[in-house]
Specification:
By secondary structure, the chain is mainly α. It has one domain: Arc Repressor Mutant, subunit A, CATH 1.10.10.10. The protein has five helices and two strands; from the N terminus they run H-H-H-H-E-E-H. Helix 1 runs antiparallel to helix 5. The two termini are 16 Å apart.
Length: 112
């Protein structure tokens, strides 16, 4: 594969990660992600996230929607309760691919 093809793949990788990068670029959403990681697989309700982050319920709901729309967080409904959790196969995993491709290109250009 030539460099032009590799750069086009990298551009595509960046494009597919734009929404995720925007979502996790906010410090409040980073805090919510950290809290959700700590909750394990069972997930958390908005009230639980609110108490751990000291954010208002509307703020938590707003940021959860952005994380959900970006494919990072999902929701499990049990009766009338919603449990938010990190999606294990989330688009966050696309960041690994992006970073790997960047590293390969940097390493290959360093050899030239």
């Amino acid at each position: 594969m030539n460099n032009n093809d590799r750069f086009n793949i990298l551009k595509s990788d960046f494009k597919s990660c734009t929404q995720v990068l925007t979502a996790i670029g906010d410090e409040t959403r980073q805090l919510i992600v950290i809290v959700l990681i700590g909750s394990g697989c069972s997930g958390m309700r908005v009230g639980e996230i609110t108490s751990q982050t000291h954010l208002s319920r509307p703020a938590v709901s707003h940021h959860l929607k952005i994380l959900k729309d970006a494919g990072i967080v999902d929701v499990r409904k049990v009766a009338t309760m919603n449990y938010y959790y990190l999606e294990p196969s989330s688009k966050l995993m696309n960041l690994k691919k992006l970073i790997n491709n960047i590293e390969e290109l940097i390493n290959d250009h360093g050899k030239e």
